[in-house]
Hints:
The structure is a homodimer.
Chain A: H1 29-32, E1 43-49, E2 55-61, H2 63-72, E3 76-79, E4 84-87, E5 96-103, E6 109-116
Parallel strand pairs in A: 1-6
Antiparallel strand pairs in A: 1-2, 3-4, 5-6
Amino acid sequence: MSTGRTVAPRSAAPRQNDRVPTSDAVLDPAVSARLTRDERGLVAAVVQQHDSGEVLMLGWMDDEALRRTLTEGRVTFWSRSRQEYWRKGDTSGHVQYVRSVALDCDGDALLVRVDQVGAACHTGDRTCFDAGDLGAVAGGPA
Amino acid sequence: MSTGRTVAPRSAAPRQNDRVPTSDAVLDPAVSARLTRDERGLVAAVVQQHDSGEVLMLGWMDDEALRRTLTEGRVTFWSRSRQEYWRKGDTSGHVQYVRSVALDCDGDALLVRVDQVGAACHTGDRTCFDAGDLGAVAGGPA
């Protein structure tokens, strides 16, 4: 049954949104081959402020979001809730400038070191973890 | 059809492995209610060295792994590959002592600040990201 809309698989023809120009470029195959994607085709992206070491947030990237992040100097995520690319700061002004990107040993997580403009969290907090302390019991050598 | 084996849902009766004593304790319902779990019942756990700020690794926790981590002073993950609880350091000696645990704004990621003994990565590297630089183009204000 046709709905009048077609949605191409993301890996073959990434969906574009209005924020970013369409491009025929694809992620470097040597990088793509190292990714261990989840069922949605995504890897986790830990975003860290490059100088202070603050962990700012966790986002998600597919191949195309990673390609943009590696080449544009700005961080782009795949929004699981909105099902679209999301270049951080385009709406809020809270831009993340890329300093480095590293893949972990098993290929399912990225560490993205950035220079964060303003608040990383949509709540206005500097990081998405600022308001969430769970009161853990601390440990140490016995 | 019975296979002679029954597997209880993890949320009701967490599977135990040999490393950790069985307990009837459950995660604080006030914490549990704040979690946004993926299809596997898991949230991502970013592990950070508390003083240097190094991001050491990314693991996964279900409710029971989080309960243990919040109460035992040691970090326990749910291993997606082995399908069992995994208290970091029990085999390797590379223990993670808990300093704090925070949940992010949308409930699907934890920031676990630890004191890491030795290497966090199974490769022997200090962090799981040490060997994975992807050569990103750095960005900055135009």
